[in-house]
Amino acid sequence: MRNALKTILISGLLLASAARADERDLWAFAQWTGTHDTRDFREMLVDARLYGVVPLYQLLRSASDWRRCSAQPFAVPPRAQWKDVQGTLQLLKLLGERGVLGRYEVVSAYRDPLLNRCAGGASNSAHTRAFAVDLLLPDWADPNPLCAFWQRYGKPWHMGLGRYPSGRVHLDTAGYRTWGGDFSVGSSFCQPLAQ
Q1: What gap in Å lies between CA 91 and CA 100, rounded to an integer?
Q2: Which pLDDT score, from 0 to 100, does residue 97 have?
Q3: Is the pTM of this model over 0.90?
Q4: Among 33, 40, 80, 92, whose CB has the most other CB atoms within 10 angstroms?
Q5: Sheet holding 160-163, edge to edge
Q6: Domain ranges of the chain
Q7: For 114-143, what is each residue's pLDDT tens digit?
Q8: C-beta separation of 23 from 63 below 8 A
């Protein structure tokens, strides 16, 4: 029964994304929460009416290199950053409601500074100081609506939008900026509009 249920869950995840990010699925999360308390964080999401914008097990995924870095597969952001979590989730919710962002999987969110350093993250990464999410989009997803939103509404949302060589898309609400494969504006798939 358990294997059949796990197969159904995995099949659903595969439909939601062209590829699964890693083995940090709902089952791994359930095991992790056996020794890690997420109650206050979940209550904050419920109170802010943001619970379920992103499945909790994805929202709490740490860096993809967690195993190589001998870190935890999931992490609850420090309470001081929960307002930033809300801001990023409000943005994701709006992007979904407007049809700008369809199917995606969050593969990395909060990272403690040691894990971020080991994983090769920027020294001032929004993953450590605010709240950022790296998204895995289906291969067929068109990033142009996301770019158009960033160009039009990115400044008031303090929206960071980047795309890594792996194809992952980074979103945060820690400052209006963009970058691409070489981490510069010039390599971004989304260029600022001429003033």
Answers
A1: 11
A2: 96
A3: no
A4: 92
A5: 105-108, 132-136, 169-172, 160-163, 177-179
A6: 2-187
A7: 999 999 888 889 999 889 999 999 988 888
A8: no
